[in-house]
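Quick one, tokens below:
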């Protein structure tokens, strides 16, 4: 009997993605998000504020028998998502080019929701997540401002979410400056 389970890998290097000038969730942060979401092969997943599609692509690789709904309102970002889908040969991502929460009415019940961008609508998006999640579903929200983090926390609490956890992730990555290396910090709340 084989005692080893083949694991799917995460952490595609940032420079593998086609980026343009659209913000992208960095690989180290993507890895943490993916571990918190605990993606299963058949999950139905929503990536809200998908940007370049880096999180959507990694979600789709993990939920290979499920579907990822990639929500993004920026036309330039949507084009990058399409390019990254082609580059990584992904066939289980559906792009919805519209602003959340308006776009969320098109989406069926979800197993997992990732909120990567909210454009000031984080309360409404969290409420939608609560109403659409299957039993045992998981929501992860990445914020970069203290105000959005606070609003998200209070909304999760008021909606009755269980096992709420807040992480402040501070990752430093080296960057060559002339003849020396400098550590540059990437900060996110999860």
């Amino acid at each position: 009997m084989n005692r080893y389970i083949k694991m799917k890998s995460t952490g595609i290097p940032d420079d593998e993605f086609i980026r343009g000038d659209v913000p992208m969730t960095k690989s180290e942060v993507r890895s943490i998000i993916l571990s918190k979401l605990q993606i299963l092969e058949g999950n139905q997943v929503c990536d809200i504020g998908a940007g370049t599609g880096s999180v959507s692509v990694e979600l789709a690789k993990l939920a290979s028998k499920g579907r990822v709904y990639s929500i993004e309102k920026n036309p330039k970002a949507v084009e990058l998502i399409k390019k990254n889908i082609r580059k990584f040969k992904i066939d289980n991502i559906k792009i919805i080019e519209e602003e959340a929460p308006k776009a969320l009415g098109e989406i069926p019940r979800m197993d997992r929701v990732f909120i990567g961008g909210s454009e000031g609508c984080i309360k409404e998006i969290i409420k939608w997540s609560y109403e659409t999640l299957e039993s045992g579903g998981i929501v992860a929200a990445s914020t970069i401002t203290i105000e959005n983090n606070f609003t998200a926390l209070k909304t999760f609490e008021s909606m009755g979410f269980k096992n709420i956890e807040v992480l402040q992730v501070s990752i430093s990555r080296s960057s060559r400056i002339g003849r020396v290396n400098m550590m540059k910090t990437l900060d996110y709340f999860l």
